[in-house]
Specification:
By secondary structure, this protein is α/β, with parallel strands linked by helices. 43% of the residues lie in helices and 15% in strands. The longest helix has 19 residues.
Length: 337
């Protein structure tokens, strides 16, 4: 156990986090999940870092959240901002990005058990589709290569001697991809199977994401739908016209599918370099009432009112211990794996 986790465990047992929460009731805590699955199970062939919690971890986290926070929806946050209702103390929002099917299969039954609302931010071109997210293609190629080195465009020669060092190269390559214009990123991903001598199956992502029928079922049963764009570009890596299209078309697609207004948006990748004031204005002009980043940490209610289109969210990982999970909710969100 790391020194940090030992300290967090001591804080948890001593009630420090409970005291801190009681002292800061006017704070919105937004949790960011992606997938709820077991990345170590046989047959898991996609991007492991995208797993936010195993089903058992998620159940424990939701039990804690239901006891310690007042969980609200994105729509309730928007209504509060519009003066239509009050926000309870220690409000929290549970969010999921992308639209993976395990949100329905593993997360939804647990949310239902605890009567908790949540928001799923859909990447609409991947709903009812077997099209793979680029990170799942990348992970498959790195996991199924027989090579121990490769010459990567823009990175150069990289070598690895273990699964861990191979993962480090993968992480470095993905970080490089995120700096590229969207069209260049796609070209680089398309070249990767040849670089690593890996054959990606056509059905890699078959059944991996939600269908529109499943989206409607979730929407009819207390799960809010928000937008995560059409094709998941980092919006600062595309033209302003393309960004507007991503915002408008994803929103209209979801609204047509569920017959409800979409009020919430989440920026792809969501770091400080991935949005700006111009994009914030575009989000507002597209008709969204709230938007969420992945800048870590909870947000004071006063800051939410001041900047409703740049609300912080807390990135979660299956590698987080329970004390680390609680610590992240209380502001130690920079403790990312």
């Amino acid at each position: 156990m790391s020194r940090t986790n030992t300290l967090l465990q001591l804080f948890l047992k001593a009630g420090f986090f409970d005291l801190l929460r009681r002292l800061t009731p006017s704070t919105l805590t937004v949790l960011n999940y992606h997938r709820i699955d077991d990345p170590l199970r046989p047959g898991f062939n996609t991007f492991k870092p995208n797993v936010s919690a195993t089903p058992s971890q998620f159940a424990r986290q939701m039990d804690y959240l239901s006891q310690q926070y007042n969980v609200v929806s994105g729509r309730e946050v928007a209504q509060w901002l519009n003066g239509r209702q009050k926000l309870p103390p220690n409000a929290a929002v549970i969010t999921f990005d992308d639209g993976y099917k395990d949100n329905l299969e593993h997360a939804y039954p647990i949310l239902k058990t605890y009567y908790l609302p949540a928001v799923i931010f859909l990447t609409t071109s991947h709903i009812d589709s077997s099209e793979s997210f680029y990170w799942d293609i990348v992970a498959y190629c790195f996991d199924h290569t027989s090579k121990d080195n490769a010459d990567f465009p823009l990175l150069g020669r990289r070598r690895w001697q273990s699964a861990e060092s191979r993962k480090q190269v993968m992480d470095e390559w993905i970080a490089m991809l995120k700096t590229l214009p969207e069209s260049d990123k796609k070209k680089q991903v398309d070249r990767l199977p040849d670089i690593l001598d890996a054959s990606v199956p056509d059905d890699l992502s078959a059944g991996l994401t939600l269908t529109w029928s499943e989206v409607r079922h979730l929407s009819d049963n207390g799960i809010e739908m928000g937008s995560h764009t059409v094709s998941h570009p980092i919006l600062t890596r595309v033209s302003l016209e393309e960004a507007r299209d991503e915002l408008v078309h994803s929103k209209s697609k979801i609204e047509a599918a569920i017959n409800k207004p979409v009020v919430s948006f989440a920026y792809p990748n969501g770091q400080r370099s991935d949005f700006n004031n111009t994009l914030v204005n575009c989000v507002a002009e597209a008709g969204y009432q709230v938007a969420f980043t992945l800048v870590p940490g909870p947000t004071l209610y006063s800051s939410v009112k001041k900047s409703p289109y740049t609300i912080r969210r807390i990135f979660l990982s299956y590698r987080d211990t329970f004390p680390k999970f609680v610590g992240k909710l209380m502001g130690a969100s920079r403790l990312r794996p």
